[in-house]
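Suppose you are handed a protein chain with no further information: no name, no annotation, nothing but its sequence. What can you learn? This example shows the usual starting point.
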Amino acid sequence: MLDRDVFTNDGVADYFNEKFVNAKYNMEKGMGIELRKKYGVSAFPTLLFIDARTQEVIHRVAGSRGPDDLLAQAQVALDPAANMQGIKEAYEAGEKNAQTLGVYLAALRRAAMTPEINKVTVEYMTDLTNEQMMQEENWALLERNIIDPLSEPIQRIFANKAEFVKQLGEEKVNSKLNATLLIAVSSFRNKEAEPIPDFDQERYNALEAFLSKMDSPVAASNLLQLQVAGYAQHQEYGKMINALYELMDKNMLISQLKPIFLMTYMTKLTGHKEMQKEAIAFANKAIADTSDNQLKASFSLIN
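A reasonable first move is to predict its three-dimensional structure. Written in structure tokens, the prediction is:
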């Protein structure tokens, strides 16, 4: 879209040719692979504005942009006080508060730098007291940007939950805490039910240990979901299916997740025909047991 509709625009082409040396790389081939690693590119397309002297990125924009928006971002890139590097330096050198952090996070969000968004927000929140974290503007930043249940701020909320609930309400606090657990556990979900090379065993162990210490139905469900992924990783398929049975029998999965788990872990056991037969039988039972027509259709597709 950029090639076809944006860089062919006379205003864009003239400005970029005048102000920049332009190059395009396929980030999945050749030199592009190394550049992707070097500059932490996680979304396509990403435009990197690089200082040729230092090879450092001074500004970046992710996603397709129209001519006017792209020209505006190019102009921002050339402004040392407004580009991403300038905003970062100003934030790190100045007073760190919710307002200045918000400006920095907006720049990171335009660049699709999700891990950095989480990291910067965690660093900011770690220096706050519980009372400060509960202030409206700070809680809004935490709610939107911190997704790791093992991070210091979220761990502190779990440890002092009663205090946060009293100030913010049970629904708001539970919603945020449960969302972090769901995101963390979902990151281990293995679509092929086979070992994957980049499985983060250390993080898996830490998350499993944390969930094991918690006493709540939500924690129990997330723990079993996590263990299903762990058993699949280590090819312990008998334990994997037993954990799935427990999830289903205790009704620990929301309706939308049931077909996903069956499809992911029980009907893709290629090379394990006996377990595959057992999985299909389990799917048939799930179809018979549900009265939800949409869910029944999902199960039928799996079967």
